[in-house]
Automatic annotation (TrEMBL):
The keyword Transport is assigned to this record: yes
Matches recorded under SMART domains: AAA
PANTHER family from the UniProt entry: GLYCINE BETAINE UPTAKE SYSTEM ATP-BINDING PROTEIN YEHX, OSMOPROTECTANT IMPORT ATP-BINDING PROTEIN OSMV
Keyword presence, Acetylation: no
Name assigned to this protein: ABC transporter ATP-binding protein
UniProt xrefs under InterPro entries: AAA+_ATPase (IPR003593), ABC_transporter-like_ATP-bd (IPR003439), ABC_transporter-like_CS (IPR017871), P-loop_NTPase (IPR027417)
Domain ABC transporter: 2-236
Length: 310
């Protein structure tokens, strides 16, 4: 678990991070969101001691990180940034192996880990391992960046706008890969983003910053349903906030699993978003969809009236 306790960091006279108190539970994803300049990146850099706070404390599993050497701390944490930062003269496999090599892992263990990770992020090892970064697309480089950050099984993965530079479909595919990896590995992730959809898709918890202050935390559904103030509402879409709320809620939240009536068509997963369900209703010209819960096979029905919360 990572705990921020009244953490403050100023640059000149400006408080970039102002008395932030926040706990990120082990095995969860926390998305730091807020407008440009609200202090997201600064807060993230305080975690791996690229910066130190002027006030307050950050604890990793109860231990104040001020007492942990930055080099040791960074080996325990993956860090992914928008510009990726791959070493251009090293192959993909050498890049991914950076931290395991530093930690002195045996060669066979490193080779196995690199192949496993490339697979995990959707890059075929036999095709990509020997390539150099400039022989990859931007999206593939981002995948290598994620694989490298995960290489030594970090306790914590810090991500600063990791997918900012790729096109929207690639970005969604990277988000899906990351969510699947997180589910599998249980890594704790703190991700900085100013992309509302990314925050909703990935963030188990949102932490909303404004002028360095933490103004709201909660699940995407809770924050979108009850934004703390007008700025938060505006950040999450203003008049379009309701549409984003549909992204944050699942079909299973609104479907009726006791309805015995049979509805034809391809069932939608109970864990799909209500937005996906609405898109299907519009495309298919229907106000009812069959639903299946992939976890237990239960079937139900989603009605348009329930979807919009009537
Ligand atoms: N190294 C620095 N020197 C001086 N001021 C800085 C430095 N880093 C950040 N700041 C200032 O601190 C404030 C917060 O910046 P930060 O980069 O943390 O915001 P952010 O929310 O990540 O923004 P963005 O979404 O644009 O990346 C800004 O006013 C910024 O100008």
């Amino acid at each position: 678990m990572i705990e921020f306790e009244s953490v403050t960091r100023s640059f000149g006279g400006t408080r970039a991070v102002d008395e932030v108190t926040l706990a990120v539970e082990r095995g969860t994803i926390c998305a730091l969101v807020g407008t440009s300049g609200s202090g997201k990146s600064t807060l993230l850099r305080l975690v791996n001691r690229l910066l130190d706070p002027d006030g307050g404390r950050i604890r990793l599993d109860g231990v104040d990180i001020a007492g942990i050497a930055p080099v040791e701390l960074r080996r325990r944490m993956g860090y992914v940034i928008q510009s990726v930062g791959l070493f251009p003269h090293w192959t993909v496999e050498r890049n991914v192996a950076t931290v395991p090599l530093l930690l002195g892992w045996p060669a066979a263990r490193i080779a196995a880990r690199v192949a496993e990770l490339l697979d995990l992020v959707g890059l075929a090892p036999d095709v990509h391992a020997r390539r150099y970064p400039d022989e990859l697309s931007g999206g593939q480089q981002q995948r290598v960046g994620v694989a490298r950050a995960l290489a030594a099984d970090p306790e914590l993965l810090l991500m600063d706008e990791p997918f900012g530079a790729v096109d929207p479909p690639t970005r969604r595919s990277l988000q899906d890969s990351l969510a699947a990896i997180q589910k599998r590995t249980g890594t704790t992730i703190i991700i900085v983003t100013h992309d509302v959809e990314e925050a909703i898709r990935l963030g188990g918890t949102l932490a909303v910053l404004e002028h360095g202050r933490l103004v709201q935390t909660g699940t995407p559904a809770a924050v979108l349903a009850h934004p703390a103030n007008e700025q938060v509402a505006r950040f999450f879409g203003g008049p379009l906030l309701g549409l984003h709320l549909l992204q944050a809620l699942n079909v299973g939240n609104r479907a009726n699993f006791t309805d015995p009536s049979q509805v034809g068509g391809e069932p939608i997963d109970a864990d799909a978003s209500l937005e996906t369900a609405l898109a299907r209703m519009i495309a298919e010209g229907t106000s009812r969809l069959p639903v299946v819960n992939p976890a237990n096979g239960r079937r139900g029905v989603l009605e348009l009236a329930e979807l919009v919360g009537l």
